[in-house]
Amino acid sequence: MIITDNETVNAAEDLIRRHKEQRPEKPRSIQAISARYYQAIGQYQELMRADVDNREQRVMLYSEIKTLGWCMGRDEAKIVKEINKPVK
């Protein structure tokens, strides 16, 4: 969808500007992303072995793992393969 209304575009740019200015925290380092990625994979595999219904938690972790993997530049097929790799 292309927005051509100047008022809407200006409001969106203002929202982005305020969001950037009011965020003093730094982005995660690649080490922090990688650590969380592998930690989340471990948690996901634990949930898969659990006897209780935890679909919502699994879906949230799965999406987080895929997002972190993309941030690290991994291919989607490799991410899925790592998620489903059996635990040693």
How many helix segments?
Answer: 4
The largest β sheet comes out as: none
Distance between the termini: 47 Å
Q: Compute the number of strand runs.
A: 0
The percent range for strand residues is under 5%
Helix content: over 70%
Which parts are unreliable, with pLDDT below 50 for 5 consecutive residues or more?
none
Radius of gyration: 18 Å
| Category by helix and strand content | mainly alpha
Overall pLDDT metric: 85
Overall geometry: elongated
Element-level helix/strand string: HHHH
List keywords for this structure.
88 residues; mainly alpha; 4 helices; 70% helix
Would you write up a description of this structure?
The chain is mainly alpha-helical and 88 residues long. The protein has a domain at 27-84. The protein contains four helices and no strands. It has helices spanning 6-21, 30-49, 55-71, 76-84. Helix 2 runs antiparallel to helix 3 (55-71). The radius of gyration is 18 Å and the shape is elongated. The model has no long low-confidence stretch (mean pLDDT 85).
Secondary structure blueprint with pairings:
Layout lengths: L5 H16 L8 H20 L5 H17 L4 H9 L4
Helix pairs in contact: 2-3, 3-4
A few lines on this structure:
This protein is an all-alpha fold and 88 residues long. It is built from four helices and no strands.
